[in-house]
Design a protein that fits this description.
This protein has 446 residues and is α/β, with parallel strands linked by helices. The protein has helices spanning 12-22, 62-65, 74-84, 98-110, 124-141, 162-166, 171-174, 201-219, 244-255, 308-314, 333-348, 351-365, 367-370, 396-406, 428-445, and strands at 41-45, 48-51, 56-59, 115-121, 149-153, 185-187, 223-228, 232-233, 239-240, 259-263, 287-290, 302-307, 375-381, 384-389, 409-410, 417-420. The protein has a 7-stranded mixed β-sheet with strand order 4-12-11-10-7-5-6, with helices on both faces. 43% of the residues are buried.
């Protein structure tokens, strides 16, 4: 009997060639795959991905940070199958459906502060675009069209569509498209790796917050919002910072009447140790952007949550005052059911408490990495671990990826930063394999 987990028994070389011919892969120099074969994945289960040869790889990065409860989780699978028998999708303009209502009500209950209104899209960058437009549009309706600029942090990443890229500080992504981007300001990052010798993470975060305050003191009249990644700056090497920066940012934005946009696309739903990263600072943003783990990594879904004050500014008899923004698959019923199932697992499995024990066990294992002579700045936040590698090899990331596959690991370094963001279902034995395999990768390459 043939295996029905994947559509055909196409050989790996044939699949590789067909993919190179027909698929333009993201964040990829396609020519490099003439020498470095694509990995043809046939199935997944738990933290493991299986290729067409039956080789397995521990998904140490949750497939670009999206997968919370492992691949092919039976509870999420069942929810999607059930929804398929009812309605797969209906446009959300003029219509509604139970999954999107239930998800919105559940998010209202668990989000920080009074974020009571949910606007849906399909991916993280789209959520950022929505939040930026909504903030600008609010100030326009409030009679302040001059408040149309945005502030973000040095080293922040918010996506690669034009609005999101305008508030992103990753030169590799920005430099080509600079002529298309709106001008903005990047203020000093609170990432503690930039602290001076002897300066604590908290003191450095407070010093960085002073640069934000100095900027807004001069430019608040033209600034619509500050956007930031709470606690962990992902794409520029998992830079981590003290929660006091979020507290000060909230105070400063309130004082100068500037919106605070929290981009929790990568760090929401328990990834930093609390349900939302903002919880660790006991603050609520004006806009909260969520995606990735929102649907458990199953289906494209994002949401922007905001306050009643902002919502009411658009509430009017005139269509022209509405927030006229849409996506074809806004509030997709299948994705919303996957999200509801994911939130059920978080609550039912007491994930925050369980993850504390898992993180403690992982921390007991990582001495094998922290003691390596080429490892710098080992850091940890919730279910995220990262360290920098002291090497001059400009091809380190690609070589590390390939060496990781030889150790049954999916590692995808950010430059010279290796990080772990595994699914929450990882076991102690799998943690041991991850740490031991990564140590072998370091010894092989360095």
């Amino acid at each position: 009997m043939s295996d029905t987990r994947y559509p055909s028994a196409t050989s790996a070389p044939e699949l590789q060639q067909r993919s190179l011919t027909a698929v333009w892969h993201p964040c990829t120099q396609m020519k490099q795959h003439e020498q470095i074969p694509l990995v043809p994945i046939a199935s997944g289960k738990g933290v493991w991905l299986y290729d067409t040869h039956g080789q397995r790889y521990l998904d140490a990065i949750s497939s670009w940070w999206v997968n919370l409860f492992g691949h092919a989780h039976p509870h999420i699978n069942a929810a999607i199958r059930d929804q398929l028998e009812k309605i797969e999708h209906v446009m959300l303009a003029g219509f509604t459906h139970e999954p999107v209502v239930m998800l919105s009500e559940r998010l209202q209950q668990i989000a920080p502060g009074t974020l009571g209104h949910c606007f849906y899209a399909s991916d993280g960058a789209s959520a950022i675009e929505i939040a930026l437009k909504m903030s600008f549009h609010y100030w326009l309706l409030a009679g302040h069209p001059e408040k149309n600029r945005f502030v973000s942090l040095q080293n922040d990443y918010h996506g690669e569509t034009l609005g999101a890229l305008s508030v992103t500080d990753v030169p590799l992504f920005r430099q080509t498209y600079e002529p298309l981007l709106r001008p903005g300001t990047h203020v000093q990052t609170p990432d503690w790796r930039y602290a001076e010798a002897g300066e604590s993470a908290q003191d450095y975060a407070l010093r960085a917050a002073m640069t934000l305050e100095n900027h807004l003191a001069k430019h608040h009249a033209e600034t619509a919002a500050l956007i930031l990644e709470p606690l962990v700056q992902g794409a520029m090497g998992m830079g981590m910072y003290h929660p006091v920066y979020l507290q000060r940012a909230r105070e400063i934005c309130t004082r100068y009447q500037v919106h605070l946009i929290a981009d929790e696309i990568a760090v929401g739903f328990g990834r930093t140790g609390t349900l939302f990263a903002c919880n660790q600072a006991a603050i609520a943003p004006d806009f909260l952007c969520l995606s990735k783990g929102l649907s458990g990594g199953y289906l494209p879904l994002s949401v922007v949550m905001t306050t009643d004050t902002i919502y009411q500014a658009f509430y009017d008899d005139r269509t022209a005052r509405a927030f006229l923004h849409s996506h074809s698959h806004t509030g997709n019923a299948l994705a919303c059911r996957a999200a509801l199932a994911t939130l059920e697992l978080i609550e039912r499995n007491q994930v925050l408490e369980t993850n504390q024990h898992k993180a403690a066990h992982m921390n007991s294992l990582v001495a094998a990495l922290t003691e390596h002579p080429k490892v710098r700045h080992f850091r940890h936040c919730g279910m995220i671990w990262a360290f920098d590698v002291d090497t001059q090899d400009v091809d380190f990331a690609a070589k590390c990826f390939q060496a990781g596959l030889q150790q049954q690991l999916l590692l995808r370094p950010l430059g010279k930063t290796i990080y772990f963001m595994p699914p929450y279902v990882i076991t102690e034995d799998e943690m041991q394999l991850l740490v031991a395999g990564t140590r072998q990768v370091l010894d092989t390459l360095l």
